[in-house]
Amino acid sequence: MTASSATKTAAVALNRFGLGVRADESLPTDPKGWLLAQFDRYAPLPPAWAGQPDSASRVTEYVDYQRALRQADATNELAMRQKLRNQTQARYRSAVNARVASALATPAPFAERLVHFWANHFAVSIDKAPIAALAGTFELEAIRPHIFGRFEDMLAAVEHHPAMLFYLDQARSIGPDSMVAQRAARLNPERQRGLNENLAREILELHTLGVRSGYSQGDVTEFARALTGWSIGGLPGLPPGGAPGTFAFQPMLHEPGPRTVLGQRYEQRGEAQARAILRDLAASPATAQHIADKLARHFVGDAPPPALVERLASTFLQSRGDLPSVYRALIGAPEAWSLAQTKFKTPWEWTLSSLRGLGWRDLGDQQLAPVLVQLGQPVWRPGSPAGYDDITESWAAPDMLMRRVELAQRFAAQAASTVDARLLGPQLLPAGLSPATASALARAESPATALALLLASPEFLRR
After folding, report:
1. Kind and range of the H or E element at 41?
2. What 3-state DSSP class applies to 232?
3. 232 - beta bridge partners?
4. Are strands 259-261 and 264-266 parallel, antiparallel or unpaired?
């Protein structure tokens, strides 16, 4: 391998698999080994997240606040609602900054990218209360500990987490023949009792099998009945049980009897029934295909090679969902090392690579949440349970590019006194600047303009 091709391969590792080059780091001499070594260097709880309250305390705090609001008189209610909004926004922004700070400081950028990938796969949105206060802890508690484990374990952690139970309206789902429903029917026969199918539907369609994988509406309903009782301790209006703010199985909400999902009969009782269904979904060939396709599209190209997808899916099945085995297959795939810049960066990816490239190690007093809003990809707010797309057509519209240019100018204005774009360019883009970009940097009217041109260049916008 020539020195030039080795440099380009290192650039693929840093930019496509990682989060972008830092100006003060050297290129890996063994790019694949550098990626594999991150399996051991990854920190599930990095320093930036230390001190963040856990989900249980945040749910308890939210419930207490809602109770106080109901008891407040009209004079105090408005002020209390404003205080709650301010507190929730502060919680959210603090978590966004922790996420960004982790990505800036990490010695394992490939692992951090995997965190972002899985958090988007199991998307929640701050559009629904009280997710704004829980989205960060969801990522910290349900995603980060499991990215180098088994898919089944991550799936179970996600579906048990209060953020997901709130987001998909599962916490108050009531089995039609449950004890709670029967008692309520005796008191008020006219009122319909609420079986909620949201969580069951999204598990099948988004989290495991994927759309058009062959499940029916009947499967959704049966799975939803199996999931009844999966709730959160300490919620008002629900039977007591379980530690406040954490997952709690509520037997009085659960639909009794066996269930049949995708032709498989489940005789288990209580919480074990939905757990058994989850276990089978995690091991399904359709799930393997769905996960393999998303991973290949994220890392390799908007239309990933079918042969690569098949290899990843086969590895997923043979390893029983062992995620490191799937990652090793991806790293070992020749298709993943194409020297062409096959992926257009999302706003999140572009922002991180810009900050890393400019040498940011911490955020100080900066708030990054508004920056991502400006760029059209607010953190943990994808607009649907499907999460954000990561394909070019979703992010390359002219108005969205203009926002990146404006932000590049802001970043450049802060860094231009200490950073020379003509020296930085070859460091951040070791695979090479195009003649047009190199010429633009050389002719820029000021250091700040040159730096902004670098961050907005076609090469830097892709990975």
Report:
1. helix 31-41
2. strand
3. 247
4. antiparallel
Q: Give the 3-state secondary structure of residue 340.
A: coil
Q: Using CA atoms, how far apart are residues 64 and 130, in angstroms rounded to an integer?
A: 12
> Of all helices (H) and strands (E), which one includes residue 47?
none
Query: Quick one: CA dihedral 153, 207, 244, 271, positive or negative?
Result: negative
Burial class (CB in 10 A: 0-12, 13-18, 19+), 190: exposed
Nearest to 360 by CA among 5, 24, 4, 67: 24
Model confidence band, residue 192 (pLDDT cutoffs 50, 70, 90):
low
* H/E stretch holding 266: strand 264-266
Cα angle 122, 127, 130; round to 5: 85
Say if residue 130 is preceded by a cis peptide, omega within 30 of 0.
Answer: yes
User: Among residues 50, 56, 42, which one has the least CA distance to residue 112?
Assistant: 42
Task: Give which of 114, 173, 119, 107 is closest to 143, Cα–Cα.
Answer: 119
DSSP tag of 265? E
Amino acid residing at 2 = T
pLDDT in tens, 416-460: 899 999 999 999 999 889 999 999 999 999 999 999 999 999 999
User: What is the amino acid identity at position 156?
Assistant: A
DSSP 192: P
Asked if 105 and 361 touch (Cβ cutoff 8 Å), the reply is yes
Structure tokens at 308: 């690569």
SS3 278: helix
Determine the average pLDDT of the residues in 128-140: 95
Q: Dihedral sign, CA of 366, 372, 373, 379? A: negative
Give me the DSSP letters along 127-138: TSTTHHHHHHHH
Instruction: Output the CA torsion sign for 110, 427, 350, 379.
Output: positive
Helix, strand, coil content of the chain in percent (nearest 5): 60, 5, 35
Say how far apart CA 45 and CA 270 lie, in whole Å. Answer: 33
Q: How far apart are CA 231 and CA 438, in angstroms?
A: 57
* Per-residue model confidence as pLDDT tens digits over 206-251: 999 999 899 999 999 999 999 999 999 999 989 888 899 999 999 9
State residue 2's pLDDT score: 42
Alpha carbon distance 338, 138 (integer Å):
34
Smallest CA-to-CA distance from 70 within 239, 194, 236, 234 is with 236
What value does the mean pLDDT take over residues 273-297? 98
The token pair that represents 318 in the structure block: 């043979």
Which residues have a Cβ under 8 Å from the Cβ of 120 and sit 6 or more positions away?
382, 387, 388, 390
**243-268 core/surface letters (b: 16 or more CB in 10 A; e: else):** ebbbbbbbbbbbbeeebebbeeebee
